[in-house]
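Supplementary Methods, section 5.1.

A reviewer requested that the exact input to the structure prediction be made available. We therefore reproduce it here, unchanged from the version used in the analyses.
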Amino acid sequence: MMNRRISFFLPAGNPEHLRLTLDEIKKSGQVGDIYLLVPGNVSVASAPAGVKTINVPSLFSSETIRKIALHAHNEFILLYTKSLPLQMGAFALRRLMQAAEYTSAGMVYSDYFAVKKGQLLPNPLIEYQEGSLRDDFNFGSLLLIETLSFIEAASRMKENYMYAGFYDLRLKISQKQTIFHLPEFLYSEVELDNRKSGEKLFDYVNPRNRQVQIEMEQACTAHLKDTGAWLEPRFTRIQFSELDFETEASVIIPVKNREKTIGDAISSVLCQITDFDFNLIIVDNHSSDATGRIIKSFRRKDQRIIHILPERKDLGIGGCWNEAVFHPACGKFAIQLDSDDLYIDKNVLARIVTEFYQQNCAMLVGSYRMVNFNLEEIPPGLIDHREWTPENGRNNALRINGFGAPRAYYTPVIRSIRIPNVSYGEDYAVGLNISRYYQIGRIYEPLYLCRRWEDNSDASLDIQTMNAHNFYKDKIRTMEFWARQQYVQEGQEI
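The structure derived from this sequence is encoded token-by-token as follows.
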């Protein structure tokens, strides 16, 4: 194996951190050229010996990608995306190159150790799929990219993104080359974000990131067009009068062991003011605390409550939803409420049903406000998914990690699809399926208070659970991606 086969690119930062990283990289004997990427707002007094500087607008811009392509003269590009010290494992670069050669991959990434508060913690990553379209897919901070693949992909980048340049690049690489995950811990990186998993969930919908989201949507839309998975804004219309329902709407609450919050949720439903009949279907998934007794106490006072105790013991949240939507008492519209949360006022159901008819949609998604257990607003506040547009929302849905809340469905459609019997991502899977054919309506004003507290199911997840969740959603996206390609090929969207 020849030496000095790598062009190394890394961002400018603290001089001491930079020195430590360069010392690590040089030990391998594989690195030839070294380039420091210097954003316009960073001042660099002088580069270390043997290191060249490239001025860039931002680390992930399209211009940065093009400049890297111009300066890469070795077989591989090694890109490090952090400015904190990097520590390489033994023979790690040789192993990355070996993986690239054996697989003919355009890009290789590996597992790594995260250094958090002085501890070395394993951080395994997940496999890249065709449905791995999230712009926040975790590749780690160290990527080995075949130079010819990088240059070819960069040559097809037509837009000038400030934030989505690397996202655009890796999508274009994936169109022609394999993106390969090597499940070995080859390096260590410092992790400064020590928030719990539940505190990171809403970063991508923070209003401060809206311009980033717009660019990411544009890059993803172009990728879907390139790969034959983009859908035109033409939708199957619904005739809401085709089927008769005794009840116009049903609120559905799957619940297990929520004695602290189920009463608040029920009360927020029963106080709704409408000019149509509605009921509340609660699927109690074998609670072992006082949840069942609380539900029964409400039902004694209000017969609109239907209390389902499933016979099956293998139901996830999706399975509980199927129990409710296939119940004979389920209304024309099935409207979601989580057992932790509550509607924001007495007019939510009326607003949702009205919008179904006005927007002619098979699924409708509202907006919500983040609050603590005492219902006091917490950052980022209002989550309204305003990046969604009626024309392109169904395509952007393959990039984002969820549809929002509260969600509501036209019952005949949800019955025809059925809901996966899982407890994570079941709503996303259904939303993707529906959006292939039907319009999904939106309400951008808050309808729902999303209560964040220590008993949320996603408040603090370990890395294995987060990986399983992300892998499942990527798998759902892959299925939908393939289904849409077939849909287009059959000429139904041409």
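The longest strand covers residues 179-190. These observations are discussed further in the main text.
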